[in-house]
Each structure stands twice: as C-alpha cells, then as structure tokens.
Amino acid sequence: MSKNLKALQQALNTATNTAAQRPSPRRVPAAAAKAAPVETVVKAPPVAAVEPPVPANSSRPPSQGSYMAPSREGKTNITAYLSPDFKSSLRLIQARTGKSLQTLIAEALNDMFGKYDVPVVRGD
Fold first, then answer.
1. Residues sharing a CB contact under 8 Å with residue 62, sequence separation 6 or more, in sequence order
2. Is residue 111 included in any domain, yes or no?
3. Three-state SS for 46?
4. pLDDT band at 10 (very low <50, low <70, confident <90, very high)
5. Cα separation, 41 vs 43, whole angstroms
6. Distance of CA 40 to the CA centre of its chain
7. Is residue 30 part of a domain?
8. Are 62 and 52 in contact (CB under 8 A)?
C-alpha cells in the first residue's frame, strides 16, 4: 500500500511542478479591457437540403435511410419478449421439421387466427 501511496504523491508533485513552470496568462491593459469588443461575423453560404436518391422499385418512404434486404420488402417486424422456454420449444420443432423460425411463427399465428375466427394469412 505504501508503494501506491508514494507513487500517487510523486505523480501529484510532478503535476504541481509542471503547472508551476507554465507561463502565467498575459495581462490585458486596462484601457484595452474597457474598449468596445470587436465582433467578427462570418456568414456561411446557404446549404440546400439534399435527399438521398431512392431506387424506383422501392416501396418504402425516402425518410427511412437504412438498408432493407430485398427479402424483407413488404413485410413487418413483430417482436415479443417471452420466456426462454418458448425459444427452446421453437428450436426443437425447427430441428424436427427443418422449417425456419419465421415459417413456424407464421404457422402458429395462423392457427391462433383460426381459433379466434379472424382472417388467416395465406402465403409467406
């Protein structure tokens, strides 16, 4: 512990000595301090807003600047925070059937839609 304390004291002393060696700030004469300040105004040229080009086949609005994979075009993200057991069971079904998680979730949602008598979604 005493080594650390000595090293800390030495570092503080070095920092204090370095600060003492710095030249003091230049004093401004009293007459100059009372004079009116000089203002310098620099006007920047106006900048026109430039919208990034949007491909002709894109259906999303130009305000969304992020990339979207073509396989996600026309689809939406649905997120839920569930117990890890749900994911484990989905992974087991995925391993048995070879279907993707997306396909399994869509199938489960369609089963629920049928149960509650709402339109079932056809296709992927």
1. 51, 52, 54
2. yes
3. coil
4. confident
5. 6
6. 38
7. no
8. yes
In the chain, the number of structural domains is 1
pLDDT tens digits, 24-74: 666 666 665 566 666 666 677 776 666 666 555 555 555 567 888 998 888
Complete DSSP assignment for 53-104:
P--TT--S-TT--S---GGGTT---------HHHHHHHHHHHHHH---HHHH
Q: 88 is in which domain, residue-wise? A: 82-124
Classify 85 in phi/psi space as left (phi over 0), alpha (psi -120 to 50) or beta: alpha
Indicate the pTM of the whole model. Answer: 0.46
Mean pLDDT lowest for which of 48-57, 80-89, 98-107?
A: 48-57
CA distance linking residue 27 with residue 37, whole number of Å: 16
Amino acid at 20: A
Structure-token pair, residue 13: 């002393």
